[in-house]
Write a structure and sequence with these properties.
Blueprint: E1 6-10, H1 14-24, E2 30-35, H2 39-47, E3 52-56, H3 62-74, E4 80-84, H4 89-98, E5 102-105, H5 110-131, E6 144-150, H6 157-170, E7 176-180, H7 188-192, H8 200-205, E8 220-221, E9 227-229, H9 243-254, E10 259-263, H10 270-278, E11 281-286, H11 290-306, E12 313-318, H12 328-335, E13 339-343, H13 349-354, H14 359-362, H15 367-380, H16 400-404
Parallel strand pairs: 1-2, 1-3, 3-4, 4-5, 6-10, 6-11, 7-9, 7-10, 11-12, 12-13
Antiparallel strand pairs: 8-9
Length: 408
């Protein structure tokens, strides 16, 4: 098991140091040293070089900035996070120029500090790997394909697909397209109130003539920025669609979008087999209803037997109603699989859908929206900052400037 990140706190205020140490007590961060600015900071760094520094920056800031510069030169592999009661952008800019990787404002909260530490260390590792020529860290050649599947209808697969796509865009994780692969009840376009320009069947029929630009003519666009490739209006139109053609369409979309979300029917077909095989991640949805859990047990057996990489299956509990037969722990025990995410019940979701607006856009502060944004952030590999102002949060991992300065 990987050890906890080790931090050194540099702050001339003894009480403030003690407060920060208490905040981090019991967290996933270990405090290995404390000290004042200047030579004391150097001594702390040499006695036990930390993974990361937490350095206070209060007026007058000259000694703090000098210490940040000194630590960045002394231990260049130990990122620095500055923290201060000063909330102006100029103070943050000075800290970053001096060598800080991030800038936190007081009052400090444990989860915010821990997230900042993890983000700074992750970013530092990626940069070091790139400089070392590690090919695994090179930019992805294709977007992530996320297949949403469930063994029973009425458990919120389409609602999850729509809101997850909207969350990716809302947190600035990248572009997203929802592909409606439900061969009987495909209604993504209707639920998002998106005009139908073409369908998956139309695109599959002309796939050999399509390229990254022309595929866009088949996509509808929601006001959130999410693209939609709808199902055909007539279910009989699916009859002549080949799995190979659908696979080619998905490949095109994965080269033009960061996230391709596939909304599948509650059945195993040749087309669903393509969606499952090509998925980067399979979100297997179940409700807390007994019949849903029973059907999910069967689905897991079939999925496990037919997949080379069973690890990409992630179990998600969705609560379409507030009537639950069993608890989450019971589901995990019965299915012998960890519940990765649990989406709470929200009676207002149906009202949002009636307006053609995903709940993460219509009601960004709801518990459902928070959960789905966290799901999107984890899948995208970013950290999100939860704000209380109702605006959509952006990824924290992109750095201090994106959080301090409003995007145009």
């Amino acid at each position: 098991m990987a050890r906890n990140p080790e931090v050194a706190i540099i702050d001339p205020d003894l009480e403030a140091r003690a407060d920060l140490a208490r905040i981090l007590a019991g967290s996933q961060v270990t405090v290995v040293g404390e000290g004042d600015y200047g030579i004391e900071a150097v001594t702390v760094a040499k006695e036990h070089p930390p993974d990361i520094f937490l350095i206070s920056m209060e007026e007058p800031v000259a000694r703090a900035l000098q210490t940040i510069e000194s630590m960045s030169e002394l231990l260049p592999d130990s990122p620095i996070i500055a923290y201060s009661s000063q909330t102006d952008s100029e103070s943050a800019r000075k800290a970053v120029v001096a060598g800080a990787r991030d800038y936190l404002t007081k009052p400090l909260k444990m989860n915010e500090v821990v997230k900042a530490v993890q983000a700074a260390l992750s970013q530092h590792e990626r940069r070091r790997a790139l400089l070392a020529g590690d090919s695994d860290t090179s930019p992805k050649s294709a977007g992530m394909i996320i297949t949403i599947f469930g063994a029973k209808g009425g458990i919120g697969k389409t609602t999850t697909a729509i809101n997850l796509a909207s969350a990716f865009v809302a947190i600035n994780a990248g572009s997203a397209v929802v592909v409606d692969m439900d061969t009987v009840f495909g209604d993504v376009a209707m639920m998002m109130d998106v005009p139908v320009e073409g369908s998956l069947v139309d695109a599959a029929d002309k796939v050999d003539e399509l390229d990254r630009e022309s595929i866009g003519s088949y996509l509808g666009r929601h006001s959130s920025g999410v693209r939609v490739l709808p199902a055909p209006f007539e279910p009989t139109d699916w009859r002549n669609v080949s799995p190979d053609a659908v696979e080619k369409v998905l490949a095109l979309l994965s080269h033009t979008h960061d996230f391709v979300i596939l909304d599948c029917p509650a059945t195993f077909t040749d087309l669903v087999a393509v969606a499952l095989d090509k998925a980067t991640v399979v979100l297997l949805l179940t409700s807390l209803d007994i019949t849903s859990i029973k059907d999910t047990t069967t689905a897991l057996k079939l999925l496990s037997n037919g997949m080379n990489n069973e690890e990409k299956i992630k179990l998600v509990i969705n609560r379409p109603t507030n009537v639950n037969s069993v608890g989450e722990d019971d589901v995990s025990k019965v299915l012998r699989r960890e519940v990765v995410w649990s989406v709470p019940h929200d009676a207002e979701i149906s009202a949002s859908l009636q307006l053609g607006t995903p709940v993460v856009i219509d009601r960004p502060l709801s518990a459902v929206s928070e959960t789905i944004r966290e799901m999107a952030a984890m899948l995208a590999g970013v950290e999100v900052t939860h704000g209380g102002n109702g605006r959509d949060p952006g990824p924290a991992e992109t750095g201090i400037l994106s959080r301090l300065f409003k995007r145009e």
